[in-house]
Specification:
This protein is of the alpha+beta class. The radius of gyration is 15 Å and the shape is globular. Strand 2 and strand 3 form a beta hairpin. 36% of the residues lie in helices and 24% in strands.
């Protein structure tokens, strides 16, 4: 496994009190999925990128999303750092089991 591959993680908390806030949340989540992000946990999504400059393209796309309120954070971690994540409670998602640290998967 080459370690120039990175994972771009997106952590977000968006308000969901009003109908408009719920709509904004749904549109942001849809934008993540359309751009190849996969849910790791509720409000934590990630995307595998071949390198940091490729990840930068997605950072810029997400920065252009109009979000009037809330909190959105992005961080880029190497595959090695991602693999070292410790799971304290629960289990790996089906997606994590299928993909693991491989870029392409055939089912």
């Amino acid at each position: 496994m080459r370690y120039d591959t990175v994972r771009l993680l997106c952590f977000f908390d968006l308000p969901m009190e009003t109908a408009q806030e719920k709509r904004t949340y749904r549109l942001f989540r849809k934008k993540l999925i359309e751009n190849g992000f996969v849910m790791l946990q509720f409000s934590i999504y990630y995307r595998i990128c071949p390198n940091r400059s490729f990840a930068e393209k997605y950072k810029q796309k997400l920065q252009r999303a109009f979000l009037p309120e809330g909190n959105v954070r992005l961080i880029c971690v190497t595959e090695k750092q991602f693999e070292e994540m410790v799971l304290i409670v629960g289990g790996k998602t089906r997606q994590e089991e299928l993909v693991g640290n491989r870029k392409l998967v055939s089912i």
